């Protein structure tokens, strides 16, 4: 009888130990499952944050590239169409200047149209720092007073006009000098004491008269 009781107790103890081990194993499995779930959740959140960050950085990078391209294009345009001081004595230089001036004006008009199309008074209401301020006031500051643009061009044109006028008068002086320098060759005698020169073209009229030397009789 004592031996049977001892065997029963041993069997019960072994079953208890087995149940305890099974419970520990189930708890370990549950902890592992919870850990894996938390890691997966954290990884998903981390992946989502990373994806959103990448999208934001890419959007910012595209905006920076757009600004750089616009700045580069504007710089190249201004360089190409810059109305540099022409050589007023060279017709080709004047024609090139006037052509670039027209291109510059057309480009300025188109630039203004594009500028006003970007105007948005609601742009300052957003909390997104990536959205630029495109209100009318900001755009006006970016463009500057419209008179400044035309003032610069008109100043160049007026200086060219003065230089062309001075060059034109100088050419007439040179023509007059060439004529009176060679009276016998270039001028027409209209009396023993006077000679003149007359030229008329579609652009100007030149009339020069002078006294000419009268040979004195030998005594």
From TrEMBL:
Point out the coiled-coil segments of this chain.
5-70
Q: Give yes or no: UniProt keyword Membrane.
A: no
IC97/Casc1 N-terminal domain sequence ranges: 9-210
**Which keywords belong to this entry?**
Coiled coil
Q: Where does the sequence pass through the membrane? A: none
Show the InterPro entries listed in the entry: IC97/Casc1_N (IPR031826), IC97/Dnai7-like (IPR023247)
Q: Which domain of life is it from?
A: Eukaryota
Enumerate the GO terms in the molecular function aspect: beta-tubulin binding; microtubule binding
Which protein family is named in the record? Answer: Belongs to the DNAI7 family.
Write the protein's name. Answer: CLUMA_CG010487, isoform A
């Amino acid at each position: 009888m004592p031996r049977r009781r001892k065997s029963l107790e041993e069997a019960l103890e072994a079953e208890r130990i087995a149940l305890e081990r099974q419970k520990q194993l189930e708890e370990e499995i549950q902890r592992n499952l919870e850990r894996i779930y938390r890691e997966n959740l954290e990884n998903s959140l981390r992946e989502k944050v990373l994806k959103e960050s990448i999208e934001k950085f890419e959007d910012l990078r595209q905006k920076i590239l757009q600004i750089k391209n616009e700045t580069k294009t504007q710089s190249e345009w201004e360089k190409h169409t810059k109305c540099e001081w022409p050589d007023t004595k060279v017709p080709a230089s004047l024609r090139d200047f006037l052509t670039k001036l027209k291109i510059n004006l057309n480009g300025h008009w188109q630039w203004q149209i594009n500028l006003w199309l970007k105007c948005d008074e609601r742009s300052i209401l957003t909390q997104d720092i990536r959205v630029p301020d495109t209100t009318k006031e900001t755009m006006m500051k970016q463009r500057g007073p419209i008179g400044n643009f035309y003032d610069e061009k008109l100043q160049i044109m007026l200086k060219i006009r003065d230089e062309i006028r001075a060059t034109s008068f100088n050419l007439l002086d040179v023509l007059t000098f060439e004529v009176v320098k060679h009276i016998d060759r270039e001028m027409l005698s209209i009396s023993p004491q006077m000679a003149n020169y007359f030229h008329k073209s579609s652009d100007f009229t030149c009339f020069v008269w002078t006294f000419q030397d009268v040979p004195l009789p030998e005594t």
